Amino acid sequence: MLTVDFTRFPLAAGDRVLDLGCGAGRHAFECYRRGARVVALDRNGAEIREVAAWFAAMREAGEAPPGATATAMEGDALHLPFPDESFDVVIVSEVMEHIPDDKGLLAEMVRVLRPGGRIAVTVPRYGPEKVCWALSDAYHEVEGGHIRIYKADELLGRIREAGLKPYGTHHAHALHAPYWWLKCAFGVDNDQALPVRAYHKLLVWDIMKKPLATRVAEQLLNPVVGKSFVAYATKPHLSSPVPAVPPAAPSVPAASAPDAR
Description:
Number of strands: 7
Strand content: 15-25%
Structural class: alpha/beta
CATH topology of one domain: Rossmann fold
Strand order of the largest sheet: 3-2-1-4-5-7-6
Radius of gyration: 25 Å
Oligomer: single chain
Distance between the termini: 102 Å
CATH superfamily of one domain: Vaccinia Virus protein VP39
Low-confidence stretches: 240-244, 249-261
């Protein structure tokens, strides 16, 4: 299940991609399949080991084209172990709402992104997220949980303040919003409640089968109740300095004519 729309966020074979806070690796796997040179980074060591195993399985199965590479590594999003301008593309999906220093996170992303590079940021959407917070304290008052809810203008303002230029936005996963409302209503750890189990079964069926009816329904509902807000931006090239105009050479006074005597 991808949150980033790669028709709006083009990826070329050979692009250097950082999936920052990769989690289970869904976007990293898609970038690898598209021929990118991928680094998937997360602070959760168990998830990174799982992502590394999937990368190995994909290589073995020939799922990635020649030239594509994939590395999974544990790391701190606020202190990235990469030189400046190391990546053509950075993806940070459903991460910023967890990080107290979100400005520091954006600064690190901008640092490692080359001028002209592209970035995709996704966060929970304000409206559906507010419903979850209202229904359940346990949804967000947990270690590593969501510490803020972004309004779209607020996130775009953060992105601009970091020196990036947004070029597009959309919403995603409308069919998933009711699932989380049910989870919050019946208990975030209560997966056995009948409404939760039934809706989860529907979502799994939809992800596996991709029927036209639910695809169309989600596209229609995304602007209304899409669970995620997605923003795309570029890192501008530095303006070429205007060459200094050399100072004019001092004028030499014309020789005076000799006095007539």
